[in-house]
Amino acid sequence: xxxxxxxxxxxxxxxxxxxxxxxxxxxxxxxxxxxxxxxxxxxxxxxxxxxxxxxxxxxxxxxxxxxxxxxxxxxxxxxxxxxxxxxxxxxxxxxxxxxxxxxxxxxxxxxxxxxxxxxxxxxxxxxxxxxxxxxxxxxxxxxxxxxxxxxxxxxxxxxxxxxxxxxxxxxxxxxxxxxxxxxxxxxxxxxxxxxxxxxxxxxxxxxxxxxxxxxxxxxxxxxxxxxxxxxxxxxxxxxxxxxxxxxxxxxxxxxxxxxxxxxxxxxxxxxxxxxxxxxxxxxxxxxxxxxxxxxxxxxxxxxxxxxxxxxxxxxxxxxxxxxxxxxxxxxxxxxxxxxxxxxxxxxxxxxxxxxxxxxxxxxxxxxxxxxxxxxxxxxxxxxxxxxxxxxxxxxxxxxxxxxxxxxxxxxxxxxxxxxxxxxxxxxxxxxxxxxxxxxxxxxx
Length: 444
Ligand SMILES: Cc1cc2nc3c(=O)[nH]c(=O)nc-3n(C[C@H](O)[C@H](O)[C@H](O)COP(=O)(O)OP(=O)(O)OC[C@H]3O[C@@H](n4cnc5c(N)ncnc54)[C@H](O)[C@@H]3O)c2cc1C
Ligand SMILES: NC(=O)c1ccc[n+]([C@@H]2O[C@H](COP(=O)([O-])OP(=O)(O)OC[C@H]3O[C@@H](n4cnc5c(N)ncnc54)[C@H](O)[C@@H]3O)[C@@H](O)[C@H]2O)c1
Hints:
By secondary structure, the protein is α/β, with parallel strands linked by helices. It folds into 3 domains: 5-140 and 260-322, FAD/NAD(P)-binding domain, CATH 3.50.50.60; 148-257, 3-Layer(bba) Sandwich (FAD/NAD(P)-binding domain), CATH 3.50.50; 337-442, FAD/NAD-linked reductase, C-terminal dimerisation domain (Enolase-like, domain 1, 2-Layer Sandwich), CATH 3.30.390.30. Helix content is 30%, strand content 26%. It has helices spanning 14-23, 40-44, 46-64, 78-89, 92-103, 154-157, 174-185, 205-218, 268-271, 308-322, 352-357, 373-377, 406-418, 423-426, and strands at residues 5-10, 29-33, 106-109, 112-116, 119-122, 125-134, 138-140, 166-170, 189-193, 221-223, 228-234, 237-242, 247-250, 252-255, 259-261, 275-276, 279-280, 293-295, 337-340, 344-349, 362-368, 384-390, 395-403. Strands 1, 2, 3, 4, 5, 6 and 18 form a 7-stranded mixed β-sheet that branches. A 5-stranded antiparallel β-sheet has the order 19-20-23-22-21, with helices on both faces. It is globular, with a radius of gyration of 23 Å. The chain binds flavin-adenine dinucleotide (FAD) and nicotinamide-adenine-dinucleotide. Residues 10-16, 32-35, 39-41, 45-46, 49, 111-112, 135-138, 154, 175, 262, 265-266, 297-298, 306-309, 311 line the site of flavin-adenine dinucleotide.
């Protein structure tokens, strides 16, 4: 049977683009995108978020230096900060599309739905592929409560023309904590409503409690064990009623209760692709229940974190699988993750929870490093680092960092973990002094 393309990729985000670029040299490839070329991360995720974060962190650093020569804290001009962000995001879709054109990759704008295992409908067109890759990402979950239409999402937040005075977030995961930090630093009154007693469930509780205290001192109001049960929009305000019997008037409320895979429009059950609540069901080769259809990135049900680098790893892996360059199951390196919350909380490798349960196997070293040269210089008195070492081999296998610029230290730790570098070799190199990396030899 002749197909229009060797491989058709649904979704032009980090995952889908990695497949297309990976196969372009050897195959006829088509990418289909229903919204903005580039996907979530550069248009309304990681990249714009971190541009705003850079500005609020600069303000925070001035505050840290108040006793050290910078007495006046600056105010954030929201509209100029947003213009700075738009200066980047506005170019993403056209830049991504130009890249595809330059590479000679066919691309089509429109929403795809399966007709059968090899055929997709996009508007009034049909296209077929020997292989099809689902890389459709995820979208915010909107809690199903009375008045839910009043919820805004992270995408709305990252496009706010003006900062509302009083803001609420439902949920206390990555999105809520990162955006709450930006909003409070920019001058809003911020309320976080969390249905249980845990913030940032992917990180160790002793660390999340420290971060929660730091954010509370900045002015974030945490309403723990509190469900928002109804919203009532009154003019420019939204009244949020909680199951504690309270109600609070806000100028905006954001759903930050997780993200669900973008699968509704694909007709997956219609053609027999197995789906779970967390995403498309795949095997260890990222094949769906129909072997010619693969799924990658945020659209997949999986235990590894749903992050941009993971979508990229999976996209490159599926490209090499389809190209016949590999047939081994996917293997993930140590994947670091960070919440950019001023300071950053980052972790990689074996979790503190798992290491604590197995003291015969792991050595845990927990250090308050605020007085170390690096963190004293940054006036980061709350800085804290935990390393987890595998006792038999003496190798670093996990780490948690709460600090200004934690991303740098966690990147160094990830490198050591990925390459299985023993302690003596970890010190056998010459990083810039003084720098975050020059502390590495002192941790384990
Ligand atoms: C606010 C926010 C901040 C984030 N910050 C970070 C961070 O700091 N670091 C990090 O690593 N990750 C971060 N993430 C997560 C990161 O954005 C995602 O993990 C990443 O974008 C997933 O890539 P993907 O290619 O799987 O999906 P996406 O980037 O979501 O791309 C999927 C694409 O498929 C398209 N699509 C969907 N359905 C169809 C269809 N039927 N037909 C055609 N096209 C379709 C969508 O329009 C979308 O463009 C953040 C996410 C959010 C929301
Ligand atoms: N820095 C980063 O790497 C980064 C930043 C943002 C987002 N992301 C990615 O996006 C994903 C989604 O982020 P998120 O913050 O939306 O999800 P999340 O899974 O991190 O957090 C969701 C939060 O909502 C709570 N919740 C769930 N249902 C609820 C309900 N009905 N009412 C109230 N609270 C409820 C959960 O307990 C949790 O605290 C992340 O898991 C991550 O993969 C990553």
